[in-house]
Every structure is written in C-alpha cells, then in structure tokens.
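REVIEWER CHECKLIST
Item 1: Sequence provided? yes
Item 2: Single chain? yes
Item 3: Sequence as submitted:
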Amino acid sequence: MKYLVAIIQPDRLDEVLNLLTKKEIHLVTVSNVVGRGRQKGIAEVYRSHREAGTLLKKVKLEIAVNDEFLKQAMDAIVEGARTGQTGDGKIFVFDMQDCLRIRTGETGTVAIG
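Item 4: Structure as written out by the authors:
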C-alpha cells in the first residue's frame, strides 16, 4: 500500500481528477494550500503598491492506493499536471503501514478499496 501526496497548480486539478477517474482511482482528498518552491513566489500589486508574495496558491492531493495502482496514479497526475513550466508540482510517495475503514472495520488493502 502506498500513500501519494501531490502538489499541483490549481488550474490543473480538473484534468488530473478526470485522468485519475479514467484509471479507476476515485478516492482522493484535495486541499487548497500555499507554498513555494523554485518559483520563489511572485510579486503582486495591491492598492498601487508592489508587494513581494513569497507563497503561491497550490492544490494538494492525497491518495491511498494499493501497490498495483501506484504507477497508474502517478502517470495520471503527471499527465494532467505537466505544463512544462517551473511550478508544475511534485509527487511524494510513502509506504503505508496500514489502513482501516471505520464503517466496516476492514483493514489493509481491502480497506483502501
């Protein structure tokens, strides 16, 4: 079992979710986040004053998958999020020790779905 955390551009979310659905990956948690990477933020104009913005709006996807769905999930995220520009995002993959479905008490790979 793996736990994926992907940070992507907000405008690429719909495309990524569509591609995940096509690969039969439906269980996704999405959060709006702010952060910075190689872009180092952007400058914005507010009330005619230029202010350096150090944090950019991003979207974080959290996905738990069984091992056989890992490559499909990663491929869908890369295909949907890639623009070729700095700031496309990152995918982090963690080993997941266990999972428990609260409603039924099922554990392990069965609990993920």
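Item 5: Key structural point noted by reviewer: The first helix runs from residue 13 to 22.
Item 6: Recommendation: ____
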